[in-house]
Amino acid sequence: MNVICFGDSNTYGYDPRSYLGGRYAADSQWVDILAEKTGWTVRNLGENGREIPSTAPNFPADTDLLIVMLGTNDLLQSRSPEQAAERLEQFLSGISLDRSKILVIAPPPVKWGAWVPSQQLIDDSRTFARLCQTLTEQLGIRFADAGKWDIPLAYDGVHFTEQGHRAFAAGLLEVLK
Question: Is the pLDDT of residue 71 over 90?
Answer without folding.
Answer: yes
